[in-house]
């Protein structure tokens, strides 16, 4: 429903000759970025597993996207990104694997980005109400312990605590409390293991020489989640997503309340209010109000 809100309102425009030199193309690309951000905001309100098995595409399917840009002349830099997503749905079992690679070089030709992300998401439906889930994530930063990769405004101290590896694996049961044409509410709880490998900077108090060590940590975390959806009518629906993650390191709570309006075939609005609580920071709670409007004609 959120996708139908945004889809018809975004329009494609042609850029006239001469637009590159006059700066029109740059402004147009920024306009596209804003449109993409609004579309992403609407897409976040969707939930592919909201109504359980049988509502998604079956079989094996996926997508791959690649982007590259390189510059020479006054500046020499390049940026590369590759993302891929592979899904397999069969009856009561649904799973997805995702991969993201990022590589970049700054204006001096030095590597400033070298990151890898892998995600895994699976659900198996025991019956119409009960299901089991598994969540996995792995991220790596190839420059987290590289002194030569520091930017001009960074020091060795900036490497302290930077994560070289960050992995999480969690699993548990879920239950659909309500599941009908107008309202869907599911809750799930599970246990997970998080592994981190961070860079530790040690400075000798006498010689002031800095050395780098690895600091690895493994901890158990527990997660509780709730996904609520209610359609008031064909034009208005509400969502409320809540997650609570607790471990020895800290407690993290996020809640996003969203209200979506389809005022006309060409006009859609989404209003969201997001709260994030992290127990071990000085100001523990952040609140964000988001408003997205889409109008096409």
From TrEMBL:
A Pfam family annotated for this chain is DUF481
Q: Which InterPro entries match?
A: DUF481
Which named protein is this? DUF481 domain-containing protein
* Organism, as annotated: Paracoccus cavernae
Q: What is the lineage of its organism?
A: Bacteria, Pseudomonadati, Pseudomonadota, Alphaproteobacteria, Rhodobacterales
